[in-house]
Structures are given as structure tokens and as C-alpha cells.
Amino acid sequence: MNAASGSVQLGIGPLAAADVIAVARHDAVVRLAEEARTEVRRTRAVIEALAGDAEPHYGVSTGFGALATTHIPADRRAALQASLIRSHAAGSGPEVEREVVRALMLLRCSTLATGRTGVRESTVDGNLALINAGITPVVHEYGSLGCSGDLAPLAHCALALTGEGLVRDRSGQVRPAAEALAEAGIAPIMLAEKEGLALINGTDGMLGMLLLAIDDLRSLITISDVTAAMSVEGLLGTDHVFAADLHALRPHPGQAASAANLRLIMADSEIRASHQVEDCPRVQDAYSLRCAPQVAGAARDTVDHAAVVAGWELAAAIDNPVITLDDRVESNGNFHGAPIAYQLDFLAIVAADLASIAERRTDRFLDRARNHGLPPFLADDPGVDSGLMIAQYTQAAIVSELKRLAAPASVDSIPSSAMQEDHVSMGWSAGRKLRRSIDGLRRVLAIELITAARGLRLRAPLRPGPATAAAISVLEGAGVAGPGPDRWLSPEIETAVRVIKDGSLRTAVESVTGPLR
């Protein structure tokens, strides 16, 4: 990506993950490189040469799926492509988020740009015009089995390209596609041989959700180090267990990174210094405090593995049939979503476990038998006030939900298309539930942040470390008050979610610690 111009260029090589994020979340403009145009034109000629061939070619002169043995006469092949898109745009349920649809569209364009699909140059340009005009097809929650590609989601995008169906314009209004395209000066595309198939036979929705999840989780894992450090400090725990030489004995890179973050965040704390004495009665902290780097570290390493797999997928050109580098047109199974589905399921486990350990730290703050001198539930007047009692209930409800969402989607398979497609990945479903998991994790960390901040304030006159003080300052500056009588908590929780999501919490902490890992 050209950071100065906010643009992304599609060539015949792989996209970078950062380019997908830039387009999906920040509306970067997408351009097609000349090398890609040349290859797209060249391989389109390969498909056009097959159009009059007496031998059947899947998706060019045949039907699809279980109808692949049905020969389609030349004068019906344009209708074949249009029928494919209309019939496959069969999604149902809630609308999918704009950033997911934009990622999906970009990733499909990336494959089209490789020349391996045989589409026309004008079809690639039409797709890019939709993205750059901020036109987002309405895609629904249900419809993809994660095999033969994300068929229904991609078909809704292709339908919009032909001027049919519904879209959201740049302002977010739902409009007929034909109307939005006309206003943007985009001519609808009439699909030619194989193009309908090429527009829908990819794993782009799954991959888009994986890339977005990796971006989110990398941020949230670092935030989990911040909230863990605040909890350890506020619960009078020790930072000795985060020493670098201890973590070198178990050389997982993510664990070492997390321990390093914890040391930086807890540095120079008066609260920590107050009980760093020989007669301190606590020999060992509870696991939720002491083992924070092991859990967050394993999460980091799992996300890094998912990023490796995502990188392989970004280098892929997925279609069926596909045009090989020596111009053979070959059927294949590269549209199967298993490689992506497994990663999406792994990451749902990561989200659930990070949330689980954070909730346990919160619960310790609220129990006067375990919080080392703080009032029960951190209430101002216990009995009259309930403090943060029900905030922990909210955490517990979310964590329970995340544990259910951690059950893998990819172990399921329901045959389709008259048993032709008899094993599918359910990767789209894995991506959908992972997005809910990430939102839940962010909310659990927000409640730990509020709880730890209140607990640290209640240790006055002892002062927290500079980094945790910076975190508290951001929270209170955004409107989350310190200790005091009971008040309406829901808006404060949403505020804490916001300062995590918009990066202001991390920025404040890093202004003291320097860059966290």
C-alpha cells in the first residue's frame, strides 16, 4: 500500500494483510497494476478459445455442481452466468458488516487480477469501481458452507455488479443496485463465459474475516497484558514471576513478549513496592495473576500461526476450474475452506480463554476474602451499594457465551448439491462466530479495566505505577468516574469498550512504557 495516498495496487502477486485492512476499514482506493491487466487479457483469450469447443468445459459450456454434465448451447451461456448469480444469491438472516463485505470484494478482485480465473478486464474494473465508490452489496449471515467458495455471499456481490439486488451506498443507505451504480457512473456488467463462476468460487469471505480477526486480536492481546498488569498490581501481586530469565526456561516467543509487557507496565509502582518485603504473607499468587503471560503468550503464538496461514492464502488464486501457469484449464479442490476454517476455530478458543482468565481476575477484586483489604465488590457503602457486583455478572455471561462459541464449526459437514459436494468446511460459520467472540472479549477486558482502575484508586494514598496511572487517566477522562456511590454502569462499560477499540488506552500506556509487543 502507498501510505501517503491511501491506495492499494493489485498486481499478479499476493496482497499484504495490511492492504486488506486498509481497504476494508479505512476505505483505501484500489488500483489494478498494468502487469495484472496484461495477464487478465491474455488468459481471457484462453477461455474464449474454449467457448466454441465441442468438448465440454465446466463453467464455460456446462451447468454447475451436480448439473456439471448438462451441456449448455452457445446461445444460452450468457443466461447461464446470470442464472448462476441470481440463484446463488440466496443468503438469509442479518446483514453482514461492511468491513467484511469490503474485504471479501477486495480479495476476490485480488484473485481475478492474477489472471488465473479467465475473466475479462472490464469485469475486474467493475468490481474495483464498486469498492472505490463505497458501494457495498447487502450480504446476509447465512448461505455459505465454506466449500465451493463462499457461494451465497460472493453471489450477492456479483449480483450487485450486474445491477441487481440491494447495496448500501457510501452514506450507508440501502438502495437498489441499479440506482446506486447509475449515480456513481458505473455501468452494470453482463457476464460472459465462466465469469459468474469465477466471481463466486473463492474463500474470500472466510479469509477476510480471518485477516480482520488477526488485526483485532493482536491489539486485544496487548490490551489483555495491560489489564492483567493492572489487576496484578491492584491485587498486591508480585511482578517477580514475570522475570525474563524465568520465561526463558520455557522459550515460547509470545510468553516472553507478554512477560516483558507486564514488567514494563508494572514498573515503578508504589503499590507494588509497599508489599515487596520479606514478611509479605503471600508465597504465590493465584494462577489468573501468575500465569497471565503463559495464557496471553499462547494466544499470541496461535494468532501468529494463523497469520502464517493467512499469508499462504493471500498468495493463492482460488477458482474452479482454474487456468494454470501453462494455460491448462483444470478442475481442482482449492476452494475447500478447511485451512482457513481451522484457524478461525483456533482463534475462537484464544478469545474464550483470554476472556476467561480476565473474568477470574475481576472476580478476585470483588471478593473481600481474596482482594487483600479492599471493600466487598469495591462498593462505596457495601450493602447500600453493590459496587461492581453485576458488572462481573455481565463478564460471566459473556465468557459463558464465548465458551459455547469456541466449539469448532469446522468439525461439521452437511452434504449438498445432490451429494456432489459431500464434504464442506463450514469456515464461513467459523468466521461469523469468531467475530462475536472478539466483540465479547473486548467487553470482558473493558470490565476488567474498570474494575482494576477502581481497585487501584482504592489503594490510595499509595500511587499506582506511571503506566497504569496513564490508563486510569484515559478511562476517567473519557467519563468513567472513580470509586463512589453506585451509578449507572452500562454507559461506563461502553466507554471502556470504546477507549480499547479506538486505541486511546494503548496510546496512553505506551506514552509511558514505549511500544508494547
Order of helices and strands: EHEHHEHHEEHEEHHHHHHHHEEHHHHHH
Mean pLDDT equals 94
How many structural domains in the coordinates?
2
- CATH architect. name of the largest domain: Up-down Bundle
Give the oligomeric state: single chain
Subcellular location: Cytoplasm
Pathway: Amino-acid degradation; L-histidine degradation into L-glutamate; N-formimidoyl-L-glutamate from L-histidine: step 1/3
Catalytic activity: L-histidine = trans-urocanate + NH4(+)
Protein name: Histidine ammonia-lyase
Description:
The chain is mostly helical and 517 residues long. It has two domains: 7-202, Fumarase C, Chain B, domain 1 (Orthogonal Bundle); 209-318 and 349-414 and 423-513, Up-down Bundle (Fumarase C, Chain A, domain 2). Helix content is 55%, strand content 5%. The protein is built from 20 helices and nine strands. It has helices at residues 17-26, 34-50, 77-88, 98-113, 121-132, 151-161, 177-184, 195-200, 204-234, 244-248, 253-266, 270-274, 287-290, 292-314, 338-366, 389-405, 427-457, 466-477, 490-501, 504-513, and strands at 7-10, 29-32, 92-95, 136-137, 140-142, 166-168, 174-176, 322-323, 329-330. Strands 4-6-7 form a three-stranded antiparallel sheet. A two-stranded parallel sheet has the order 1-2. Strand 8 (322-323) and strand 9 form a beta hairpin. Helix 14 (292-314) runs antiparallel to helix 15. It is elongated, with a radius of gyration of 26 Å.
